[in-house]
Task: inverse folding
């Protein structure tokens, strides 16, 4: 703050500040925005969720299926595969909360790291934007023939590349294939909280 | 007529002969219905307690029942508390409700330290350490325990085998449970196949 100047007023003198205090001030208190003290940390996965573990899915379209964990992605999302040929579960992201990890592990050491990296990239599972917009003409054509949904060939080939090595290691153990093919369910008297997995 | 602690059986030579006959007939009788099981149990029961009992005529054969007694040297199974499921020998009887037990097993995990145990928390077993002196110390009990091969005998008992099996079943993993399911199914299939063969040959 600059000093201002000293002025004489009759007998006495006083300092007149260079920039005066504001004459007007807001009547209402201005609310101060709260400072966020949280930080976005990478999700901590459970110890049991090691790649290669057989999981039981508990929610969603594939609930009850036994699948193989490939990798844990950001924010508690897991990358799993059926394998597709065995139980129809494709490469898929699932919530780690809705999963039971069993003690059984499958050897996935021979997996191609490049495809895994490609699949676990952020945009891989998001839907592509429709190339052609819905026109009026297309709307009236709807009744004639339903357009068949085609699986992107790139996705199918990725699925094959990943499942190939897994299937080979599954074949080595008795009952493992049929174990993955059957869905899990609770029977009478089963107490899931007392069961070992 | 009934003596306390003894079973009185009347009628000349009951049950045993008939029972074995019945069991022998099981193999030949038809497997389809369960009527034979009822037959098996009805007959000896009628023999044991005939409707018109004539004590004067039958030779009465009094035989002392083999009660499991609360006695020094009796092995008990502990059913509750910190030593649940473990085996211990009665060393001294404190009063009508409590006994002093000691279980110096040869296996580290199965050792029960010497303590007073309420009888309500114990189940008497068929096993005893014969001639265990009253209030014997842990040392002598341990020696006699080993000499009588208590651990081995207990492991062979049906109760121990059943609990072991149950424990093992309980600790199976999900994949092991699945394998058990499949293998049992396979075994069942084989049994049914051989039964069908027997049945077909019996008809022809």
Result:
């Amino acid at each position: 703050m600059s000093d201002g100047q000293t002025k004489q007023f009759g007998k006495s003198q006083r300092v007149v500040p260079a920039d005066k205090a504001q004459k007007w001030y807001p009547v209402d208190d201005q609310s101060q925005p709260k400072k966020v003290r949280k930080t976005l940390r990478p999700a901590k996965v459970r110890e049991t969720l090691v790649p290669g573990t057989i999981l039981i899915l508990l929610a969603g379209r594939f609930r009850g299926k036994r699948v193989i964990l490939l990798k844990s992605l950001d924010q508690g999302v897991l990358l799993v595969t059926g394998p597709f040929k065995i139980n129809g579960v494709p490469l898929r992201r699932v919530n780690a909360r809705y999963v039971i990890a069993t003690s059984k592990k499958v050897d996935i050491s021979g997996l191609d790291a490049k495809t895994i990296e490609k699949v676990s990239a952020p945009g891989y599972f998001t839907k592509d934007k429709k190339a052609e917009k819905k026109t009026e003409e297309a709307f009236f054509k709807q009744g004639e023939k339903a357009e068949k949904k085609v699986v992107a060939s790139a996705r199918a080939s990725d699925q094959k590349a990943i499942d190939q090595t897994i299937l080979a290691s599954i074949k080595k153990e008795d009952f493992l294939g049929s174990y993955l093919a059957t869905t899990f369910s609770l029977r009478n008297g089963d107490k899931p909280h007392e069961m070992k997995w | 007529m009934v003596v306390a602690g003894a079973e009185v059986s009347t009628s000349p030579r009951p049950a045993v002969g008939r029972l074995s006959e019945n069991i022998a007939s099981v193999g030949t009788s038809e497997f389809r219905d369960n009527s034979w099981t009822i037959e098996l149990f009805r007959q000896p029961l009628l023999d044991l307690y005939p409707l018109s009992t004539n004590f004067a005529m039958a030779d009465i054969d009094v035989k002392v029942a083999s009660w499991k007694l609360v006695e020094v040297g009796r092995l008990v199974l502990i059913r509750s508390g910190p030593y649940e499921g473990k085996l211990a020998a009665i060393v001294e009887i404190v009063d009508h409700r409590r006994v002093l037990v000691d279980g110096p097993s040869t296996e580290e995990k199965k050792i029960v330290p010497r303590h007073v145990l309420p009888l309500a928390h114990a189940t008497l077993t068929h096993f005893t350490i014969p001639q265990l002196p009253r209030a014997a110390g842990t040392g002598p009990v341990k020696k006699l325990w080993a000499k009588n091969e208590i651990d081995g005998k207990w492991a062979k008992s049906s109760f121990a085998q059943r609990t072991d099996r149950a424990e093992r079943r309980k600790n199976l993993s999900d994949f092991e449970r699945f394998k058990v399911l499949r293998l049992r199914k396979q075994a069942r299939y084989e049994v049914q196949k051989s039964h069908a063969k027997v049945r077909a040959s019996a008809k022809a």
In short: The interface with chain A takes residues 170-175, 178-179, 182 of chain B (CB under 8 Å).
